[in-house]
Amino acid sequence: MKPWLCLVFFTSAFLIWHAEAEFFTSIGTGQMTDLIYAEKDLVQSLKEYIRAEETKLSQIKSWAEKMDVLTSKSTSDPEGYLAHPVNAYKLVKRLNTDWLELENLVLQDTTNGFITNLTIQRQFFPTEEDETGAAKALMRLQDTYKLDPETLSRGNLPGRTKYRSSLTVSDCFGMGKTAYNDGDYYHTVLWMEQALKQHDEGEDTTVSKVEILDYLSYAVFQFGDLHRAMELTRRLISLDSTHERAGSNLRYFEKLLEKEREKPSNKTVATTEPVVQSGAYERPLDYLPERDIYEALCRGEGVKMTPQRQKRLFCRYHDGNRNPHLLIAPFKEEDEWDSPHIVRYYDVMSDEEIEKIKQLAKPKLARATVRDPKTGVLTVASYRVSKSSWLEEDDDPVVAKVNQRMQQITGLTVKTAELLQVANYGMGGQYEPHFDFSRKDEPDAFKRLGTGNRVATFLNYMSDVEAGGATVFPDFGAAIWPKKGTAVFWYNLFRSGEGDYRTRHAACPVLVGCKWVSNKWFHERGNEFLRPCGRTEV
């Protein structure tokens, strides 16, 4: 019926009703009785409206109270709170997803003040991309440190018990959806299974089992587990018999199974042979050949520190080859590895200097970049997840002071070194295995600098890290753990100028805590006589 026809019909009916029935003239007539019931119906409708409004207000009030408690806790120690990766993920998810749901709820009313404020504030909120990134960071921690979804969901990570937080069914479902949208069925299965487990345990949630089973059954099918896909799909249909996609999928699965049964036993299709390891589907291989070795080292496994090697490592006082500035106050030097030679220096930076460097760096922090091996241009990459900034000596005297100290310790000149790079690794922050020097197939990597290749790396640890965050060398099985105020140093090039490919290293994901480092890369130019060329490897 067209709107104008509705209006004419209603108006006509009202005129007829008003003209033919003067209800007040007779109480006992049926029309008046009808009005009583009509009013009763209106009251019931009004109560339903009130209940709906009260439910909405109750939800908003409950959310506000929960957020008040949570923000009081988080703002009392923001860095400590965010050091727990589950808190970091949930903060990003709340601001990108949950607050939007609250906005939709509030929009049903005329609370213009709140909506205006939220609209203004939301321009500073995380985006969908940020939530995806936060979810992937949790998955990265899950893989690297072999954490099952239950451990992550319950927030049972080392330390930070004060800020322990758990994932809800909705959170786990969100993790699974993120993986699904990325074509990552391995993590889709893990997180949808966790969501279903918590749902089965009776956790209150707005996510239905049907939604979870819909994603889970398809992801399982993608792994070739036809029988389990059918089992999950049947469970879905038992909950919602009208689910068209599930019904269609089940018929398709049954046809596949029938075709399989018709094949000779020695020609079983691959789709029924999923690779299962320790009760779960095997994690697919990716682009990084040394993935297993790298992640094992991050967990402290597979470190090749033998008793024989340990005997070759010593501690000593280091005066920079009798540098006048270090004769009276030499630095404590400790061998971390024998070949290639990696050393750690203690008390390189004071707490005051570290805080000043961080203060200078924070306003300049931006997504860390890598140098394109073909063009030499800096660009972001998925395998490097951190924020960094570059400090010049003109920024503050402390920068010049720290640079001078690194020069005294190494005996190399900072005049041709790169600026001091300060990096912060937050939630799941990492830098996968890489070389600091340019290889023969990328001769133009540092061409713009005009100072030759990176001859050495000086890495300052500006924070302790509660769990994770090691610097590892997959080639020879070394793992070096951050210690605030210390620094590690190694040469990237042999004296011949050839690159030492053993120095391929990585910054492991930070599991719990916040990792701050500063890097100084020394280049060949200006160091020709300070570290003369030769045929030897040291």
Automatic annotation (TrEMBL):
Cofactor: L-ascorbate
Keyword tags: Dioxygenase, Endoplasmic reticulum, Glycoprotein, Iron, Metal-binding, Oxidoreductase, Signal, TPR repeat, Vitamin C
SUPFAM superfamilies (alphabetical): TPR-like
One Gene Ontology cellular component: endoplasmic reticulum lumen
Residues covered by the Fe2OG dioxygenase domain: 416-524
Broad EC category: oxidoreductase
Pfam family, one: 2OG-FeII_Oxy_3
Superkingdom to which the source organism belongs: Eukaryota
Signal peptide as annotated in the record: 1-21
Keyword Transmembrane helix attributed: no
EC number in record: 1.14.11.2
Cellular compartments annotated: Endoplasmic reticulum lumen
Family: Belongs to the P4HA family.
Function: Catalyzes the post-translational formation of 4-hydroxyproline in -Xaa-Pro-Gly- sequences in collagens and other proteins.
Protein name per Swiss-Prot or TrEMBL: procollagen-proline 4-dioxygenase
Lineage: Eukaryota, Metazoa, Chordata, Craniata, Vertebrata
